[in-house]
Amino acid sequence: MSATQPQIQILNPETLGKPLGQYSQMTRVKASEFLFIAGQVGADKDGKGAADFDAQCGLVFANIGAALASQGASFANIVEFTTYLIHSQDIAKFMAYRIREFPKLFKDGAYPPNTLLVIDRLVQEQFLIEVSAVAAL
User: Fold this and answer.
1) How far is CA 113 from CA 19, 61, 67, 80, in A?
2) pLDDT band at 22 (very low <50, low <70, confident <90, very high)
3) pLDDT band at 3 (very low <50, low <70, confident <90, very high)
4) Domain contains 1
């Protein structure tokens, strides 16, 4: 673990326009280490999945939180997300989840960049969302 804290600046340059949701356009980072968290799906550590989209979102972000905590980090260390959905109609549900939950995870209101992709399917058909993350340590 690094003895120094990372310097993380969440940025929204006026030249890029306002984000369309709870994310920012860029993150500028000065850190000694990075943590790359593989895509997390809506299943707990025992592999038990949730049936609905909102519950899967809760498990996804709980898993990311557990991964961060295992390395002495928190959501404050996140510098980027990549989100995969399998149904375009879930975009509004995902945005609603973020509006409700992200203020709890990112207390300063600075939300990291997030690339959102709609794809054909995930590793198992029951999964509706997958999120990978990069954190600075």
Assistant:
1) 9, 15, 19, 5
2) confident
3) low
4) no
pLDDT tens digits, one per residue of 56-110: 999 999 999 999 999 999 999 999 999 999 999 999 999 999 999 999 999 999 9
CATH number reported for the structural domain that contains residue 47 in this entry: 3.30.1330.40
Joined together, the tokens standing for residue 106 give 């990112």
What is the Cα–Cα distance from 74 to 14, expressed in whole angstroms?
Answer: 28
Report if residue 80 sits inside a domain.
yes
Tokens at residue 100, please?
Answer: 């409700």
Number of domains composing the chain: 1
Query: Is 78 inside any structural domain?
Result: yes
Q: Which of 91, 92, 134, 136 is nearest to 113 (CA)?
A: 134
48 pLDDT exceeds 80?
yes
Residue 2 domain flag: no
**CA 28, chain centre distance (Å):** 17
Closest CA relative to residue 130, chosen from 68, 76, 69, 61: 61
Instruction: For residue 35, give its domain range.
Output: 7-136
CA dihedral 21, 12, 3, 81 (to 10 degrees): 30
